[in-house]
Design a protein that fits this description.
The protein is an alpha/beta fold and about 240 residues long. It has two domains: about 150 residues, Rossmann fold (3-Layer(aba) Sandwich); about 70 residues, no CATH class. It is about 35% helix and about 25% strand. The strands form two sheets. A six-stranded mixed sheet has the order 6-7-8-3-9-10, with helices on both faces. A four-stranded antiparallel sheet has the order 2-1-4-5.
Length: about 240
């Protein structure tokens, strides 16, 4: 059984068809990186898998459960990290984790929060409001939030947005560590170098369709940049929207 299965997925907003007959399947422990230009449908795909948006047509299952029918159950098995951190600025780092921990009914929550803050290097700032954190610190706290309930599935939507070089390196190190724990992961990113570094599989989405996919023998950075450019430019010339 696939951990994540997408069949014939279509999503429309009015007359604008954002996703068009997308098929995708991930096995346990796979790391898929999704590339594509702005407006390609990448974030919409992540939102549908995470139960935040409903599909117009098609079937999407997570751990064998239909996302449209078992959204509450599915959310308990997903950790979401994006360019929006889903943190509350007026709460401290510790208070943010307490809030989310209670939502997910995390056992031994206080102990879990202490260890999580220690792991992301924020234990010394546990009583500080998030509004005073740098972008990199907020993203590290967002990782702690997403992993607090130990989810088997990670969905990453542009997690590198706004990070400086050091913060991006810390994030990559964390994702490499989580990848070794047999978690099933989908990452949407414009950062080709980081995306290729982490991926077991790669796809390019453009104009709502998967235009390129590779699972083994992923091209190196130079070759993939050329493939990406040709794929995107070709679709821009040929697609009728």
């Amino acid at each position: 059984m696939s951990v994540i299965s997408v069949k014939g997925l279509t999503k429309s907003f009015g007359e604008n068809q954002v996703l068009r007959q997308v098929d995708l399947s991930l096995a346990e422990g796979e790391f898929l990186t999704i590339f594509g230009p702005n407006g390609a449908g990448k974030t919409t795909l992540i939102k549908i898998i995470s139960t935040l948006t409903k599909a117009s047509q098609g079937e999407v299952t997570v751990l064998g459960h239909d996302v449209a029918q078992k959204s509450d159950l599915i959310r308990r098995h997903i950790g979401m990290i994006g360019h929006h951190t889903f943190l509350y600025d007026d709460l401290t780092a510790e208070e943010n984790l307490f809030f989310y921990g209670r939502l997910y009914e995390v056992a031994e929550l206080k102990k879990k929060i202490e260890s999580s803050l220690e792991e992301v290097g924020l234990a010394h700032r546990h009583k500080d409001q998030v509004r005073g954190f740098s972008r990199g610190m907020q993203q590290r706290l967002a990782i702690a939030r997403a992993m607090l309930h130990d989810p088997p599935i990670l969905l990453l939507d542009e997690p590198y947005t706004g990070l400086d070089q050091n913060a991006a390196y810390i994030l990559t190190s964390w994702l490499e560590r989580l990848r070794k724990q047999n978690r099933t992961t989908i990452m949407v990113t414009h950062n080709i170098e980081r995306g290729l570094q982490l991926a077991d599989r790669v796809v390019i989405i453009h104009s709502g369709k998967i235009r390129y996919a590779v699972q083994s023998n992923i091209p190196n950075l130079t070759a993939f940049k050329e493939i990406y450019q040709k794929t995107v430019e070709g679709r821009q010339k040929n697609d009728v929207r």
